Amino acid sequence: MLLIHCPYCDQDLPELEFTYAGEAHLTRPSDPSLLTDEEWRDFLFIRKNPKGNHAERWRHTHGCARFFNAVRDTVSDRFIVTYKAGTSRPEGTE
Ligand SMILES: [Zn+2]
């Protein structure tokens, strides 16, 4: 069973307690009305799909219910690191 470390609960817990919540570190445009249709489409729908390390948002749905970030290797499905929301991606995890 895949275990995920919740940085708030500070425990390794079964994947079933968590929900994937998309790509991490996306910045919402300050004024979407200034964007072209293509720029707005890209913000809403275009996401990275790397082979290797990927920064993701996760939520500890059946625990503390908080969102956090993780870097996961999409090839091996191993979590490299998890860290609290609002903090920067750790160096060396690109
Ligand atoms: Zn938690």
From TrEMBL:
It comes from the Bacteria. This is Sarcosine oxidase subunit delta. Keywords: Plasmid. InterPro entries: SoxD (IPR006279), SoxD_sf (IPR038561). Pfam families: SoxD. It comes from Qingshengfaniella alkalisoli. The keyword Metal-binding does not apply. The keyword Transmembrane does not apply.
